[in-house]
Amino acid sequence: MVLPLPLPLVPLPASALLGEGRVPVTESMRVIGDSPAAIQLMDAVAQRTGIRLTTTDAAEPGAITLRVESGAAPAEGYRLSIGESLQIVGGDEAGLFYGVQTLLQLLSEDAGAWSLPRVEIVDAPRFPRRGVMLDVTRHFFDVAEVKRFIDETSALKFNHLHLHLSDDQGWRIHIDSWPKLTELSSASAADGDRGGFYTQDDYREIVAYAAAHHMIVIPEIDLPGHTHAIGVAYPELVEEPVLNDGLVSQAKELGQPLPVKGEPYLGWGVGHSSVRIHEERTYDFVRDVVRELAELTPGPYIHIGGDESLGTPQADFDLFAERATAIVVEAGKIPVAWHEMGSADGIAEGTIGQYWGKTTPEGTHAEEAEHFVARGGALIMSAADAAYLDMKYTPEFPLGLTWAAVIDVQRAYSWEPTDVLDVPAEVILGVEAPLWSETTRTYADVEQLVFPRAAALAEVAWSPEEAPGRTWESFRERLASLAPGWRARGVNFHPAPEIPWVAE
Ligand code: TNX
User: Fold this and answer.
1) Over pLDDT 70: what percentage of the chain?
2) Quick check: CB of 308 below 6 Å from ligand 1?
3) Which of 123, 155, 186 is the last residue of a domain?
4) Phi, psi of 244 (to 5 degrees)
5) In 181, 197, 318, 389, which residue has its Cα 20 to 30 A from 146's Cα atom?
């Protein structure tokens, strides 16, 4: 395979200078140092090429040096040099890890011989927040599947993993102080499929694996709506379902059941459930769940939900938003909430809002999002008509929904997160791409929807707007070159016809 030009890199680095010729990669190449990044590099090279590199302590010509040098690059940045000698210098451990991911994308094979192009790269991310979300409630994905998701998204330099751990269809994490949640509310999933949950050890294992891939886990307990499953275990905490017209007609159209309090809910409807806002017991529950999650979560954030609480009266919703975000702050964490919670005047200061309206905001969405900023918080951009990984690629695509948009790869690529809301650019922390799992019954289905669009969103989040090659034409060429790696690792990506995919 001849190396396609431009360089086969996604996301695009801030700057790259291509030299002449290539450096062969063979068993005799040594890796200097035994940092976690060096071990990850050697394992990944072995997996990809069958070549087992070995380490050495002494500097020798042609060896790969990996090291962290504070000041060598901004946070998460790195310098990569491939020439007479090979060097990856991270400004920090994360930067070193990203330098390794870049080197792995550069590796290619021609007639059985593996090599790297001679190149000098200086790189650092545009946004500090580059997130993906996995909805493990509508359908459940086990620890091994979540690890695969981490492998493939961290390789694209995503650094936050938001886990949507509770919704109407099931509760997915064990809480010691409310044991009936996993005893009674976890076996169900959408469409009557098999549910499941993470033990606290499972969750710790995910957090540790994510950390080794420089990803921070953000756990979400969705409140006060999306709480039907809580009522299967603890009926005293929730209201009767509110059957609005939209829900009833959608259920009829899809042939799905309506929610019945105390019974598992298997449909896809939203907005029918609410916890009891004026019961103190509700806040005991929230406090206990948040405390246990805070203890399990080294990252600074807890997501408290807040979306689509259509059955909760506005004043009650606002009261709940204020109390729930205050509980997260008391537990020592920074609250994150879907943008609707910005309707509450007294939402906890510093709460981060997650905007999921459209790239052209509708209704009160912009105003709600902007209120987080007025309260000293910041924003994550998940514009549903660009960043939602659960929208269909084309109207005929078998998986996914269409309510926000049909999102082909070009559409996922071609939006500017700082252009959506009327706020100072510095309050935009970055981007998160959510995968809701109503239509993904298996992890293979998840991969179809996530890849390749996650790569487009990775570039939106990582690559400077002004970097040469930050264009759709260049991106589609570079994206095409990820295919051999995805195929080798068994990633079930969608071969979207917009992309000139590189053959085997
Ligand atoms: C809206 S976006 C939801 C989810 C659904 C999703 C499906 C948001 C914060 N809530 O409950 O799964 O649409 O696209």
Assistant:
1) 99
2) yes
3) 123
4) -75, 165
5) 181
